[in-house]
Backbone:
């Protein structure tokens, strides 16, 4: 009988934890409902100057590496292809909607070790692009399969060639 009660207590505790996470996710979505709408991907994009595969980590409010944007499916991590096109940065995510960062809204690019709750061992584990949308700054993170291309991406984005 004690084993059954202990098992039941563990299950109830687990269910409360899951409910708490779900409730927190929904609360954050409501709090972020006033954020500006993300730009839509143009119908026609130019040829990619740079392209890499990896994982879209997430988008946060700039300067707060753990304040993940949860509006829609923006907060969902997904395998993705990151492309630098003349119009900006296109992020094609598997199983989630695509993201687009217009070239004129890019403010900075850097490598970092953490964003949106994802922490890497190396200081250059993530490629992070800071961009502005209707006066609001965002940081969008990407973990590439090949981290050796990060310097090329940062140079292209910061050097004004984006």
Residues:
């Amino acid at each position: 009988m004690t084993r059954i009660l202990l098992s039941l207590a563990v299950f109830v505790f687990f269910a409360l934890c899951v409910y708490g996470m779900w409730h927190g996710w929904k609360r954050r979505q409501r709090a972020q409902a006033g954020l500006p709408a993300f730009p839509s991907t143009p119908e026609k994009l130019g040829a990619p100057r740079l392209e890499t595969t990896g994982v879209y980590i997430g988008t946060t409010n700039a300067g707060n590496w753990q304040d993940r944007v949860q509006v829609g499916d923006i907060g969902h991590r997904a395998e993705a292809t990151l492309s630098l096109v003349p119009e900006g940065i296109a992020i094609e995510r598997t199983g989630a909607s695509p993201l687009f960062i217009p070239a004129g809204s890019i403010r900075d690019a850097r490598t970092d070790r953490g964003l949106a709750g994802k922490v890497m061992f190396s200081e250059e584990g993530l490629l992070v692009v800071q961009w502005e949308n209707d006066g609001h700054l965002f940081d969008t993170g990407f973990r590439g399969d090949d981290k050796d291309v990060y310097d090329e991406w940062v140079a292209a984005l910061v050097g004004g060639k984006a």
User: Anything to note?
Assistant: The beta strands are 50-61, 78-85, 88-93, 99-102, 106-112, 114-115, 118-119, 126-133, 136-144. The chain has two domains: 1-31, 50-158. The mean pLDDT is 86. The helical segments are 2-31, 150-158.
